[in-house]
Write a structure and sequence with these properties.
heterotrimer, A alpha/beta (383), B alpha/beta (286), C mainly alpha (89), A: 383 residues, alpha/beta, Peroxisomal Thiolase, Chain A, domain 1, 15 strands, 32% helix, 23% strand, C: 89 residues, mainly alpha, Non-ribosomal Peptide Synthetase Peptidyl Carrier Protein, Chain A
Chain lengths: 383, 286, 89
């Protein structure tokens, strides 16, 4: 049981429509949300949003089907899988929205056409992302679709990793997919946690800014000589304190960090950096900061990536893994834009300028509604 | 060796013109606290999981693996009606419950669990997905115990529920909540095993080598049709207990749970697969 | 002008409905703290959001994260005052 290599990646997010340019944009500290306006409510909704810079109308019904395949193809191409390997490729998918945008459009169209016969939720779309990918790649393997809010694609990766370690699969395609839809935008607006800007761990933090992003990783039991990034394990737990946030005393966050370290036989001082979840909500960052401090006596450098691509919810695990891994390959730890004023109550500060990323072990944190906490452990070794 | 130390099977047909059976009274007896803000999907999950656990104390780090083809569809319908038909911001509670983790959260809270908590779907083959994930984690050793459940909810009007699933008008619909507690070890309980095969012939040979008269065979609906027919012809299988005409998205879970809770002798083999994807065989022993 | 007593009864009914509490309106005192650990009603931040949205939809008054409007959710009295006040919604 030796972990699994990140063999190929594909990414489309606010930073750009491929992984390499995304990492470069992050290195340039590009932060580019747009202003979004939804006019259909009594009082129009207006919020910043990190959109994928394609030219299509944001809620265009064909958008998911256009955005997904190129990302997956890029990952598979970079991994250099043979047609036979692609044919049997299992899919592990994490999302919080699936095809809800399509379902909304169809229902709205049906209401406009003949309201008496319009059926709400005309699509029950848990399988739609898998179906689009299977058609696009001509792959026929098993599919696992995770729906655990903001930890969904991190959990999907954990599932894929364990099955690869057991020898069930040699390769797996892990996909995180989150794209603009009205349910997510209006729903989070009702939760009153959407802020004007993302300020992770800052004393003035006010909440999240949403984003869309699609990421794909080919995870493999073996690698070529150039690539030395390996997911070596992780852990996930459930905190039943509140359905919307981990306990602000940090205990369940500390527990899952400790489990991840134990599972990978690491001591805290061996950790070279942490990709924090950093939603920038007052409660979420409190739980994460206190949890980290309970585990680490000396704090490793902390990076938060959400200021670059927004909170991509169910896809954030894979999207941020791709960006973080890309940064490690270029030997830097990303800076955290938006952080200015330390919060004495938290006692942790993300790095504000890029730092060197040595070989060694890195943790990636994810926390979601439903008390779901997931930590992944990444290892970088010299080629 | 993995054992199914406990199982529960809730299957309730819902007939045209009838209301959905209320679950509150049953939940009052099964839940540690009176949960608010729970939709029918969460109610069904609480009901099935509590019946399965039946007072037994689970390991606190027991993993939860919840599968469903449709998920919390009633809550998702309400949310979409608020948003699209009424042009209103969805109610926070309804929106939070669309995000997938709420049912698992309440199951964990009710049973005092703090281990990993996954919701996994593969539409009509969601049992195979969650059972596969749970078996992987148990075999891997990352969990010492797994609570695996599959839940399907019915919504009214039934006509719309059928249309949403492309079902004929005369199809009887059912709600289901089917649960298993799995852990490594040997003992009096039924054993559960999973074998994976690249070739159909190897699967057939294996099944022939372990098959005994009276064993049950369940070819998953997602299995390739030609292979399923070959299997059904090749093995003299006893009749399956469980649903015969009533439908929900995860019938395989209903068949497996019905067999698990019965005292019937023999083994139930659940086969799924496709020549291009490979084959999997779950078998629940005596 | 809305009748104040009638409004307070409506608000209690709304809270019971939105938060699924097993209570009758007369069991909620006008000055009882509604949200948080000091609340006899055991309502949390998700309940607060649920109530805020219902108030917005029924009375057109916005309760958001800023302190001035958050104070409105202190008790039935403060909520009624807030709804009856002339401030811009």
């Amino acid at each position: 049981m030796a972990g699994a290599y990140i063999r190929g990646v594909g990414l489309s997010c606010a930073l750009g429509e491929d992984a390499e340019s995304g990492v470069s944009a992050m290195q340039r500290r590009q932060v580019r949300p747009v202003v979004l306006r939804l006019d259909e409510f009594d009082e129009p909704l207006q919020m910043p949003y990190y959109r994928i810079p394609d030219r299509a109308e944001l809620f265009d019904a064909g958008r998911l089907e256009r955005l997904l395949p190129p990302v997956a193809r890029a990952a598979v191409a970079q991994a250099g899988l043979t047609p036979e390997e692609i044919h049997r490729l299992p899919l592990f998918i994490g999302s919080s929205c699936f095809s809800i945008g399509l379902s909304e459009s169809r229902y709205a169209a049906a209401l406009a056409h003949q309201s008496e016969t319009a059926i709400p939720m005309p699509l029950c779309g848990y399988q739609d992302i898998a179906a689009i990918l299977q058609r696009a790649l001509a792959c026929r393997g098993d599919t696992y679709t995770y729906n655990t809010a903001c930890t969904a694609s991190a959990n999907a990766l954990l599932g894929a990793l364990r099955m690869i370690e057991l020898g069930w699969y040699r390769h797996a395609l892990v996909v995180g997919a989150e794209w603009a839809n009205r349910t997510t935008l209006a729903g989070f607006s009702g939760l009153q946690i959407v802020a004007d800007a993302l300020r992770p761990f800052d004393a003035a933090r006010k909440g999240i800014v949403l984003g869309e992003g699609i990421g794909a990783v080919v995870l493999s039991a073996e690698t070529d000589s150039a690539n030395r990034l390996r997911v070596i394990g992780g852990a996930s737990n459930c905190d039943t304190w509140s359905v919307t946030t981990a306990n602000t005393n940090g205990k369940s966050v500390a527990a899952v960090l400790n489990q991840a370290l134990e599972q990978t036989h690491l001591r805290p001082r061996q950790v070279r950096g942490i990709k924090a979840h950093g939603t920038a909500t007052p409660a979420g960052d409190t739980a994460e900061a206190l949890g980290i401090r309970q585990v680490f006596a000396g704090l490793p450098p902390l990076s938060v990536l959400k200021p670059y691509l927004g909170h991509t919810l169910g896809a954030c695990g894979i999207n941020e893994l791709i960006l973080f891994a890309g940064a490690l390959q270029r030997s830097f730890l990303p800076a955290t834009p938006g952080f200015e004023t330390p919060d004495p109550a938290l006692g942790v500060q993300p790095i504000i300028t890029p730092e060197a990323a040595p070989d060694g072990h890195y943790l990636l944190n994810h926390f979601g509604f439903g008390g779901n906490n997931t930590v992944l452990v990444l290892e970088k070794t010299a080629p | 060796m993995i054992q199914a130390i406990s199982a529960s099977d809730y299957l309730q047909p819902v007939h045209d013109g009838a209301a959905l059976p209320p679950l509150e009274a049953a939940l009052k007896n099964l839940c540690r606290e009176r949960f608010r803000r729970i939709d029918r999907f969460i109610q069904l999950a609480l009901l099935g999981s509590a019946r399965c656990v039946a007072g037994r104390t689970l390991q606190p780090d027991c993993g939860i693996y919840l599968g469903s083809g449709l998920g919390p569809i009633g809550n998702n319908i309400l949310t979409q009606q608020q948003l699209i038909r009424d042009a209103e911001i969805p109610k926070p509670v309804n929106f939070v419950n669309t995000l997938g983790s709420s049912a698992g959260f309440h199951v964990a809270r009710n049973l005092g669990l703090r281990g990993q908590n996954f919701f996994i779907s593969r539409r009509g083959a969601s049992l195979q997905a969650v059972l596969g994930a749970a078996m992987a984690d148990l075999t891997h050793g990352v969990v010492g115990q797994a609570l695996v459940g599959v839940v399907e909810e019915v919504t009214l009007p039934l006509g719309e529920h059928r249309l949403r699933q492309h079902l004929p008008e005369d199809r009887t619909l059912a709600e289901g909540s089917h649960w298993f507690v799995l852990q490594p070890g040997t003992g009096d309980s039924r054993s559960l095993d999973l074998k994976r095969f690249a070739e159909f012939a190897t699967l057939e040979d294996f099944l022939k080598s372990v098959w005994r008269t009276g064993d049950r065979l369940c070819c998953a609906r997602s299995m390739e049709t030609h292979a399923a027919k070959t299997m059904q012809r090749g093995f003299d299988a006893g009749a399956l207990s469980g649903p015969t005409s009533a439908f929900h998205d995860s019938l395989e879970a209903a068949w497996l749970a019905a067999f698990a809770v019965s005292r019937e002798p023999g083994t139930l083999f659940l086969v799924d697969g496709h020549p291009e994807r490979g084959w999997s065989l779950f078998y629940l022993g005596a | 002008m809305m009748d104040r007593e009638q409004l307070k009864l409506e608000l209690k009914q709304m809270i019971i409905r939105e938060c699924e509490k097993d209570l009758r309106p007369e069991q909620i005192p006008d000055d009882a703290i509604l949200i948080g650990s000091e609340s006899g009603l055991a309502l949390d931040s998700l309940d607060a959001l649920q109530i805020a949205l219902a108030v917005k939809q029924q009375y057109g008054k916005r309760i958001d994260g800023n302190n001035q409007t958050r104070v409105a959710l202190t008790s039935i009295n403060t909520l009624a005052n807030f709804i009856l006040s002339d401030s811009v919604p």
